[in-house]
UniProtKB/TrEMBL annotation:
Entry keywords, A to Z: Oxidoreductase
Protein name stated in the entry: 2-oxoglutarate synthase subunit KorA
GO BP: organic acid metabolic process; response to oxidative stress; sulfur compound biosynthetic process
Subunit structure: Heterotetramer of the KorA, KorB, KorC and KorD subunits.
EC supergroup of this enzyme: oxidoreductase
PANTHER family attached to this UniProt entry: 2-OXOGLUTARATE OXIDOREDUCTASE SUBUNIT KORA, PYRUVATE-FLAVODOXIN OXIDOREDUCTASE-RELATED
InterPro entries registered for this protein in UniProt: 2-oxoacid/accept_OxRdtase_asu, Pyruvate:ferred/Flavod_OxRd, Pyrv/ketoisovalerate_OxRed_cat, Pyrv_Fd/Flavodoxin_OxRdtase_N, Pyrv_flavodox_OxRed_cen, THDP-binding, Transketo_C/PFOR_II
One Pfam assignment: POR_N
Enzyme Commission identifier(s): 1.2.7.3
Catalytic activity: 2 oxidized [2Fe-2S]-[ferredoxin] + 2-oxoglutarate + CoA = succinyl-CoA + 2 reduced [2Fe-2S]-[ferredoxin] + CO2 + H(+)
Domain Pyruvate flavodoxin/ferredoxin oxidoreductase pyrimidine binding: 208-439
Domain of life: Archaea
Family annotation (NCBIfam families): OAFO_sf (TIGR03710)
């Protein structure tokens, strides 16, 4: 078996995240392609959390239900994952903790850690066990641990090195008992996997924003988007940006809008419940024609919903947010690479069209991580559209494109007037009916027409001459792509949208060429299907929807597609 799925399951506070961090990094160094995804309850301690780590000689980038190796670190782990455990799952657990459970390989983590000095070393012991089972060099792991804990002090470093040795000894006994795990490392010689970039979706969004020239970020902490704000706060000095934790989401969006007015390039990051408070600010950006980038890390609602789970439930919220009519752009990355590229792209588009630009991710995508060879910093080059004003400058001057030259205070001789009221070309308030009509058309129709000329086209994966067509957006991308490879159905294509609004003018061409169009979405109503029907009149009959707070698994998608194709 080449592709292994390893799951660690225990209580919040047991340090599963630390084990995941150590393992994904050392396994990559050891020439494994890695992927990890988390599911966790919304509490600091207690509850049951799990992390899946997939390893393979080939790239792996999607969540699977299958568990090959389960490390049960709590007495509730096995019951928590019972639906994913099969007869072929190897279960490892400390019988002092989980009790006498049939078909569990005893792993005396508690006793071993206490001998070292504290139960907290059980994490590092577990990492040692897993690395030995996967034939990772102990020398390489010890060198990694030296760097990983180098700031923790000599005593802690020494204890962790001892924990690694104890983990290898425990694994050797397991191997001597007949357990032999034959995991295959990458045999690709064209690149060193150890030099690959290992990053999460939230890191990619933050880095993409920085690559796009972002120099201001504001937000009020709200999972799962908090990680973006945390990353940019951590590196604010290195990148010369202002990272502001505001008192609430209303302040956050107004700060981001203000940063653009002053000549900066600002973003705010939030989740659906926080964005609900930002809608008035979205309207202000629309009326004032001020750029702003809004990142929404989606999670299940309504209200607080499932704060640490995943869902694609905020497409319609972002599409219809704000009172009145004005143009907007909505991007939906489906991979870590696209998290970077589209976040970068968002800033140039906001600047050019002077509109709100949304980046829709979700908990699954933000928290998953995998290794990639590199990122092309030159893709979507930074473009800036601020002009130096003259004395007769008019902020809202009419133009053929609907886009007025944008000046900023202090750059040129012109007077910069921006307002949330309806206004004339200079920015002064007006209630003139003719001007009102022209301004609405400027902000809505003319800008939308220009946006449609620069639409990012969807990617067609699978069969190019398809008979059946899957439609998906955002984080379903990699899951559906792997499902297609397993199905091996030569008549099945998958159209992945990374820009969900506005849609390309050629949208109908994709739809009418298929006998069956099947939408796959992580929400209850088929929000993207609804948008397609609104824009094209095409009603997607077949829908694969999931809305229990969990992402699709590859196996689930394979099964559901087979059911639809057999109808």
């Amino acid at each position: 078996m080449e592709d292994f799925s390893i799951v660690l399951c225990g209580e919040a506070g047991q340090g599963i995240e630390t084990i995941e961090d150590i393992l994904t990094k050392i396994l990559k160094i050891s020439r494994y392609n890695v992927f990890s995804a988390r599911e966790y309850m919304s509490r600091v301690r207690g509850g049951i959390n799990s992390t899946e780590i997939r390893i393979s000689p080939k790239p792996v980038r999607a969540y699977v239900d299958r568990i090959d190796l389960l490390f049960a670190l709590s007495n509730k782990s096995i019951s928590h994952l019972k639906d994913r455990i099969s007869d072929s799952t190897l279960i490892f657990g400390d019988k002092e903790v989980i009790g006498e459970v049939q078909n569990v390989i005893d792993l005396p983590l508690s006793k071993t850690a206490k001998k070292i000095g504290s139960g907290i070393y059980a994490n590092t012991v577990t990492a040692g066990v897993i690395c030995r089972l996967l034939n990772v060099s102990e020398y390489d792991l010890r060198n990694f641990i030296l760097k990983y804990f180098d700031k923790k002090g000599e005593e802690i470093l020494k204890k962790n090195l001892e924990a690694i040795s104890q983990g290898y000894e425990l694994a050797n006994k397991i191997i001597e008992s007949g357990v032999n795990i034959k995991a295959k490392k990458s045999d690709e010689l064209s690149r060193d996997l150890g030099k690959d970039i290992l990053m999460s979706g939230k890191d990619a969004v933050a880095l993409g924003a920085l690559a796009g020239g972002c120099n201001f970020i504001s937000g009020y902490p709200m999972s799962p988007a908090t990680g973006v704000l945390s990353f940019m706060s951590k590196y604010s000095k290195e990148f010369g940006i202002i990272a502001e934790q505001s008192e609430d989401e209303i302040s956050a969006i107004n700060m981001a809008i203000g940063s653009w007015y002053a000549g900066g390039r600002g973003m705010t990051t939030t989740s659906g419940g926080g964005f609900a408070l930002m809608e008035e600010g979205v309207s202000l950006a629309g009326m004032a024609e001020t750029p702003v980038v809004i990142h929404i890390g989606q999670r299940p609602g309504p209200a607080t919903g499932l704060p640490t789970r995943t869902e694609q439930g905020d497409l319609e919220l972002s599409l219809y947010s704000g009172h009145g009519d004005f143009a907007r752009l909505i991007l939906s990355p489906g991979s870590i690479e696209d998290c970077f590229y589209l976040s970068k792209y968002a800033f140039s588009m906001a600047d050019k069209f002077q509109i709100p630009v949304f980046i829709l991710t979700d908990q699954y995508l933000l928290d998953c991580k995998y290794n990639i060879p590199s990122l092309d910093h030159n893709k979507y080059p930074i473009k800036r559209y601020v002009i130096k004003t003259e004395k007769d400058y008019q902020r809202y001057q009419f133009s053929k494109t609907g886009i007025s030259p944008r000046g900023i205070p202090g750059f040129g001789e012109g007077l910069i007037i921006q307002t949330g009221n309806e206004h004339d070309e200079t920015g002064h308030t007006t209630e003139n009916a003719i001007l009102r009509k022209k301004m609405v058309e400027k902000r809505l129709n003319e800008k939308l027409n220009q946006l449609k000329n620069e639409v990012i086209y969807p990617e067609l994966l699978g069969a190019k001459a398809y008979k059946f067509l899957l439609i998906g957006w955002g984080s379903t991308r990699n899951i559906v792509e792997e499902a297609l490879k397993q199905l091996k159905e030569p008549r099945l294509g998958f159209l992945y949208f990374k820009q969900v609004y506005p849609l390309p003018r050629e949208m109908m061409g994709y739809l009418i060429n298929s006998q069956k169009v099947i939408a796959i979405e992580n929400n209850a109503s088929g929000q993207f299907s609804n948008l397609i029907k609104r824009e094209t009149g095409f009603d997607i009959k077949y829908k694969i929807l999931k809305y229990n707070g969990r992402p699709f698994s590859v196996e689930e998608v394979v099964s559901k597609i087979k059911e639809v194709l057999e109808e």
